Amino acid sequence: MLNPTNERREWLKILGRELPGERIQLWPDIDDPASIEFAVFWIHDPTDLRRYPRLRAILSVSAGVEQFLRDDYPDVPIVRMCDAAMADEMAAYSIHWVVHFHRRMDRYLELQEVGKWRPIRNVDAHKFPVGVLGFGVMGRRVGEGLARLGYPVRAWTRSGGSDRGVTHFQGPRGLEKLLACSDAVINTLPLTPDTQGLMNRRRFAHFRPGALYIAVGRGGTTVEADLLDALDDGSVGAAVLDVTIEEPLPAASPLWEHPRVRITPHASAFTRARTAAPMVAANIRRIRRGEQPFPLYDPQRHY
Ligand code: GLV
To answer: Pairing with 86, which of 28, 116, 189, 295 sits 20 to 30 Å away (CA)?
Structure first.
C-alpha cells in the first residue's frame, strides 16, 4: 500500500521498476486489502492499517518519526527514512543561513538599497563555531558541509561520538557547553519525549549573546514563547525557523513579524521519490529475503 505525500505517480513508477514481482496499490484505491504486506507513507490513519491482516512492515517516507509516538499502530516493524540526498538539501539550507548571517548578507541588501559599496570584514569562518544538535544522517551532513567550509563544528547527541574535526558533546551539561561556545546553533533534532520543548528559556540563556538559532528538525523541540523572549532580551541574535510547533504557522503568531526571525514553510529538505523510493524498495527486498530492514524505528527510544 503506497500513500506518499507527494510525487505519487513517481513513487508508483519507481517502486514498480524496482520491485518487478510486487503488486503495488496506491491508496485509497486498495481493491484487495488482504494482499497488502507493506505500507509506505508519511502520515496515515492507523485505523486504516487494521484493514490489512497480512501487514508485515511500515516503511516511512519521512525522516521524522513523531507520527509513530502513539500506541495504536499495528505491531509491525517501522522502518525510518534516512536519505543522504535529503540530508544534503538540509545541509545546503542550513549552510545558506549560516553564511547569510556570518557574512552579513542582510546588511549588504540594505546597502544596495541606498547604492553603497561597502565591504564588511566579517570574522574568518574559523572563528565562527557552529553547534549542531542531533548528529544522525541529517545533522552529520550539515556539520560535514560546514566543516569543509572552515567552520569549527560542535555536535550534540545523546550518546556522544568521535568524528575527526568535530567536537562532541552529550547530556544536559554538554548541551549548555555547546550553546555557550557556538555562534550559530542548528537544531536538527527529531521530536521525541526527550526533545520536546528542549530549547527553552534555560537553554537560550546559555547562548552566546547575538548567536543565530536555526531550527530544521521539528518545531516541537523549541518553546517559541521562550525564543521570542530570548530574541527580545538579546540572548539570541536572530532565528531561522523552518519548522514550528503548529504548521502552517498561525497567522497570529508574533514570529511572522519579528524583525529578527526568518520563516520558511518546512521546506529545508524534501523527500524525493528519485532517491527515497529505491531505498524503500531495497528494504522491501531485504524483508522478502528474511533480512533486517534498516534503519528500524525503536519504540523504546522513540526514534
Ligand atoms: C520532513 O520533515 C521529514 O520528516 O521527512
So the answer is: 28
